[in-house]
Amino acid sequence: MDVDSPLSSTTITNNASVTSTTPDPNAANNSATAETTVSVPDLAVTKTDSPDPVVSGSDLTYTITINNSGSLAASGVAVTDVVPSGTTYVNAVASQGTVGFDGTTVTATLGTIAPAAAATVTLIVNVTATASSVVTNTATATAAEPEVNTANNSATATTAVVANDADLSITKTDTPDPVIVGGQIAYTITVTNNGTSIAADGVQVTDAIPRARPTGTRRYRRARSTSTARR
User: Angle at the Cα of 79 (from 82 to 126), degrees rounded to 5?
Assistant: First the structure.
């Protein structure tokens, strides 16, 4: 007999029975059953994203892992991944086979994955400034052989997107305080970027050097004397 696809189980059960017009005092042994295990591949896809959250304007890396947890080698394995909205394609590489990009979809042709073996695809996209607050991406794997379980052939990663904003703050400390007349003061100025921007461009710190004088002193303007000669 031929094993048809799609398969609903990895086991084929076949029953046979015999009858006769002659009375049979023991009918308990008139049937027999044979169970046959069908070797099939089982592709399981997992997907991770980094970084998460991602800052708009920066790159987002997806790592797609295709594992064959079945008992038969999977041939003609292919992975498809549509580049998500709000991103642009940067690059894609695979641990085996070839990778192509047609402008919207990344297709990795991986060839054969043996039982208990795995292949990986790394996809890099750039998150644009117009991206929404969440970027969702799905990868799907297929093989030439039929699979019993196809529910694990796809994996989705959801990444939070934060705006590329800077939030600069500045603090200043002095030492010693108080300082003696004729002594030196050391100022420590710390600038912190509390925003989500990886770097704030054109940052500049200005500090006017102070002029100090003892408390309670006064400045007097010297009076200028003038005289008029009379004739």
Answer: 40
Per-residue confidence (pLDDT) for residue 20, from 0 to 100:
78
Give which of 42, 41, 47, 39 is closest to 108, Cα–Cα: 47
Gap between the terminal Cα atoms of the chain: 146
C-alpha distances (whole Å) from 40 to each of 68, 74, 79, 97 are 10, 8, 19, 22
Q: Buried (b) or exposed (e) across 92-127, using 16+ Cβ within 10 A?
A: bebeebebeeeeeebebebebbeeeeebbbebebbb
Q: Which residue matches tokens 């989500």?
A: 196
User: Residue 166: what are its φ and ψ, rounded to 5°?
Assistant: -105, 150
- Average pLDDT of 67-94? 96
The Cα angle at residue 90 between residues 58 and 78, in degrees rounded to 5: 130
- Identify which of 182, 87, 181, 83 has the alpha carbon closest to the alpha carbon of residue 137: 83
**Residue 214 CA: distances (Å) to CA of 176, 181, 187:** 16, 8, 19
How far apart, in whole angstroms, are the C-alpha atoms of residue 51 and residue 61? 7
The answer to whether the bond into 210 is cis (omega within 30° of 0) is no
β-pairing, 154-162 vs 54-55, is parallel
Rounded Cα distance between 209 and 120, Å, is 59
Instruction: Tell if the pTM clears 0.85, that is, is over it.
Output: no
State the residue for tokens 């379980």: 149
